[in-house]
Design brief:
alpha/beta, six-stranded mixed beta sheet, 324 residues, single chain
């Protein structure tokens, strides 16, 4: 019997087929998955780019936020300045309105004064009044500093106008202060003819000084000043006028006595009168209308003129002097 051939064949046809199919399958899968692998790689790069761009934008946004905060702060400051300007403009408008009212009042007073002067000039031509004696009784306490300055500046004009109306004018002064201020209570200028001694009058008024120390009371020794003025040697045939200028009444317990003295002076003489010029000051505002009322009562008792000083001093004084 012939023996069989037992040679072992590792690579048979069937095995080669399986190997070929497996290799083809691998290649096919590789070809199919390759686009996805490339896309994943590309996406990672894009993510990094987006991340870098986001970081840049965040930095820019932060810079913009800081700039916006600075602009907001600047805008707030500008708004505050605008508010201040608006308040200033409103205050200025109020001041301008007050000045317009004051100017209107001054114009009305000036017109009245011009009309009064025209009437008096006509009377002067008839020589109804040949002589005029005027005594100014002036408060020189601490609150009256600005008023004394106005009076000094106005005195020359006051005298010149009076000289146009009356041939002979004499001026006297009594400056009073409170005795508790520790200074001399009265300073006087005797009757002085304005022609030729006007400078003597002007120098006296210019040199007046307010009290160096305040008094302990708001009301003042006005009665002393008036009593001194009433005792001065008025000319018998002259028009006699006392003008009291101040911002506070006499002491309360002396007010009735002072008003009686005023009435006695006006009624005991043919051509005598007492006028009162009340000045509003910060000190007078503390007393309300009480002190103003006393000055009004003094003018009424003295058959003179009451003036609530609010314009130029020259107008207020002349309206007090040029009384019938």
């Amino acid at each position: 019997m012939k023996p069989r051939n037992r040679t072992l064949s590792i690579f048979t046809l069937s095995a080669l087929d399986v190997l070929a199919v497996a290799t083809g399958t691998f290649v096919l899968l590789l070809v199919l998955l390759m686009p996805y692998y490339r896309k994943s790689f590309d996406s990672t790069a894009e993510i990094e780019e987006v991340r870098a761009a986001t970081t840049t934008k965040s930095a820019e946004a932060e810079a913009l936020n800081q700039a916006a905060a600075q602009h907001l702060a600047t805008a707030a400051e500008a708004q505050a300045e605008i508010d201040d300007l608006d308040q200033g403009a409103a205050a200025l408008a109020g001041q301008m309105a007050a000045q317009r009212d004051a100017a209107r009042s001054a114009r009305e007073t000036a017109v009245a004064l011009e009309e009064r002067m025209a009437d008096l000039e006509a009377d002067a031509q008839k020589r109804v009044v040949e002589e005029l004696d005027v005594v100014f009784v002036v408060d020189t306490t601490r609150s009256m500093g600005p008023v004394l300055d106005q009076l000094a500046l106005s005195m020359r004009g006051i005298v010149r106008i009076l000289e146009r109306l009356v041939p002979s004018v004499r001026i006297g002064f009594v400056a009073y202060r409170d005795r508790d201020a520790g200074v001399k209570p009265l300073i006087t200028l005797p009757f002085t003819s304005t022609d030729p001694h006007l400078n003597r009058v002007l120098n006296f008024v210019r040199d007046l000084e307010i009290s160096p120390r305040p008094s302990r009371t708001r009301q003042e020794d006005l009665h002393l000043g008036f009593a001194k003025a009433a005792a001065m040697p008025f000319r018998a045939g002259a028009k006699q006028n006392i003008i009291v200028i101040g911002d506070a009444a006499a002491h309360r317990h002396l007010q009735t006595r002072t008003l009686k003295q005023v009435a006695r002076f006006a009624r005991s003489r043919d051509k005598a009168s007492v006028s009162a010029l009340f000045v509003t000051t910060p000190s007078s505002l503390l007393g309300g209308d009480a002190d103003r009322g006393f000055f009004r009562a003094m003018a009424q008792a003295g058959e003179g003129a009451f003036s609530d000083h609010s314009g130029r001093m020259i107008e207020s004084v002349l309206l007090s002097v040029l009384v019938d």
